[in-house]
Each structure stands twice: as C-alpha cells, then as structure tokens.
Amino acid sequence: MPLDAMNEYDDDALLALYARGDAGAARALTARLGPRVFSHAQRLLSDRAEAEDVTQEALLRLWRIAADWRTGEAKVTTWLYRVTANLCTDRLRKRRGTDLDAVPEIRDERPSVEETMQQRARAGALQAALMQLPERQRQAVVLRHIEGLGNPEIAGIMDLGTRAVESLTARGKKALEALLLGQREELGLHDDT
Amino acid sequence: MMTHDTNTSADGDLAAFFDAGRQAGESPTGDFMMRLEADALRLQPVPQARTRGSVWGDLLRGLGGWPTVAGLTAAACAGVWIGVSPPDLMLTMLQDQSVIQNVDPLSGYDYAMLGG
C-alpha cells in the first residue's frame, strides 16, 4: 500500500497491518513514530547519539511485540512514550555523576536572522533548565507543555494518577520559572510578550 | 494527540520558552530514519510465508508435529517387526479360532447394534 494511503489509518490499525506483513505499514509507522520518539528522547537526554540509541531500541521493542499487540487496550504512542522514558531513565542513571556538565545540544543550521537566533536561544535556555529538573518532573513538563499531551494520557505513560501528574507539572513549571524568568530580558522577552 | 493550542494559556509566563522549545524540536537524520525502517522491515512478522517443502511442513503440522510422527514411526516399525517375526504366543492365538472371535471388534453383536 502506498505511504500516503496509510495516513488515514491510526497507529493501532497500522500496527495490525504491520503484524500481518504489510511493508507499507512498516514504513508508515517508522515515518510517523520515529521522529516523535527521537524528539522526546532528545528532550529528556539532551544528547543526540543517545536519543538515537533510545529511539532505535524503543521501536525495536514495538516491532517485536507487534504480533501480540492487543488493539484498543493501550495507545501505541502511550506505550512508546513510556518505553522511551524508561530507556532514558536508564541512560541518565548510567550517566549521572560522570556527565553533569553536559551542555544541551541545540542544532544551528537555520538562517541566522535575529528572531530565529532568539528562538534558538530561548529553546536552548529551556533545554538547559529542563535538564536541571528531577527526571520525573522533566518528563511530565515535556509531555504536557512540549509534546502537548493531556494529563490522563501522561498519567498512563508515567503510571501515576492525574493528580500526581498535575502536581509534578506544577512543581516543574515553578522550578522552570525560577530558572528562566530572570533571563527574559536577555532573551528578548519583555513584560508585554 | 497534540493539543498545543489549548496548552498555550496553561504555559503561563513560560509560553515563549515552551513555544521556542516546540519549534526547536530535533529531527532525526535521513540515515537514521533509513536504519529505523530497515529494523522495522527486518523484524516484521511474515505469517503467510511459504517456503520450499511447505507441503511436508503442513503435513507435519497436521499430524501434530515431530513427537506425533516419532510415535507413528515407532508403531509402524513395531508392526513390521511383528509381521516379519511374530511371537510364538501370537501364532498360537491365530491358530485358535475362538480367540480370534473373542477379539473381533466387529462381532455379530456390533452388527446387530449398527442395524438398529
């Protein structure tokens, strides 16, 4: 089946097609989920090479359980975010104490107009601040405010109640405000923005 | 599902930072995506796969797998052996017609039952 024709299928349906040997579904799922998992891993780890490793491992696990996937029981993305977060946590545990000075890696390949520079600087500041949060707070804030997921789905991913998610994101945001709001002026943000 | 629009108000004072963070999302390289795709295709289940000799494979599965085939083979060998070199007791029994009647599974009684 052509890749475009796969757009009308949700992740569950594509995974079922994948399990039945449809190569188009394999390509469509990879194109749909790969960048998403990678982006999330990158935000949690702030390391491109490690994010690639985690993405590859998370998707390998998905392919391996595809034949046993029970459609309708859990969202594929919820499962993937959870696996990704667990893999990232493992990486961070190994890294802890040996790589505390890691500098967030922000790509620098777009035209350097002022606004783009400022956007990039803000993104860099945010990533640096995120990396200072405890892991669970960081994960909750990223899922809520960057990935744009709702609290119930985040609760499913993090294996928490929605109240606990709300508490984590609130504390994370408060910590981020303490870290970032003092930099507003130098990042081109003024009170009217 | 992405809900960035509805989240913007919840972002509060950090909205500009979160907005920048969303736009600065890292993208995987083409090479890396190719690797992911190769993994997906390599690990894809092939439930309809047919290989050479699959008729024998189907027969084997139909009979119940190797354990069943081993049992059938043993039974066949035993049958051949008994045919070639029957035990003395069996020869005695075969010569005694009454014994054969006693073990006949299709005796007159069974025929009567089948006839209703």
TrEMBL record, chain A:
<feature type="domain" description="RNA polymerase sigma factor 70 region 4 type 2">
    <location>
        <begin position="125"/>
        <end position="176"/>
    </location>
</feature>
<keyword id="KW-0805">Transcription regulation</keyword>
<keyword id="KW-0804">Transcription</keyword>
<dbReference type="GO" id="GO:0003677">
    <property type="term" value="F:DNA binding"/>
</dbReference>
<feature type="domain" description="RNA polymerase sigma-70 region 2">
    <location>
        <begin position="31"/>
        <end position="96"/>
    </location>
</feature>
<dbReference type="InterPro" id="IPR013324">
    <property type="entry name" value="RNA_pol_sigma_r3/r4-like"/>
</dbReference>
<dbReference type="InterPro" id="IPR013249">
    <property type="entry name" value="RNA_pol_sigma70_r4_t2"/>
</dbReference>
<keyword id="KW-0731">Sigma factor</keyword>
<dbReference type="GO" id="GO:0006352">
    <property type="term" value="P:DNA-templated transcription initiation"/>
</dbReference>
<dbReference type="Pfam" id="PF04542">
    <property type="entry name" value="Sigma70_r2"/>
</dbReference>
<dbReference type="InterPro" id="IPR014284">
    <property type="entry name" value="RNA_pol_sigma-70_dom"/>
</dbReference>
<dbReference type="InterPro" id="IPR013325">
    <property type="entry name" value="RNA_pol_sigma_r2"/>
</dbReference>
<dbReference type="GO" id="GO:0016987">
    <property type="term" value="F:sigma factor activity"/>
</dbReference>
<keyword id="KW-0238">DNA-binding</keyword>
<protein>
    <submittedName>
        <fullName>RNA polymerase, sigma subunit, ECF family</fullName>
    </submittedName>
</protein>
<dbReference type="InterPro" id="IPR007627">
    <property type="entry name" value="RNA_pol_sigma70_r2"/>
</dbReference>
<dbReference type="InterPro" id="IPR039425">
    <property type="entry name" value="RNA_pol_sigma-70-like"/>
</dbReference>
<dbReference type="InterPro" id="IPR036388">
    <property type="entry name" value="WH-like_DNA-bd_sf"/>
</dbReference>
<comment type="similarity">
    <text>Belongs to the sigma-70 factor family. ECF subfamily.</text>
</comment>
<dbReference type="Pfam" id="PF08281">
    <property type="entry name" value="Sigma70_r4_2"/>
</dbReference>
From TrEMBL, chain B:
<protein>
    <recommendedName>
        <fullName>Dihydroorotate dehydrogenase</fullName>
    </recommendedName>
</protein>
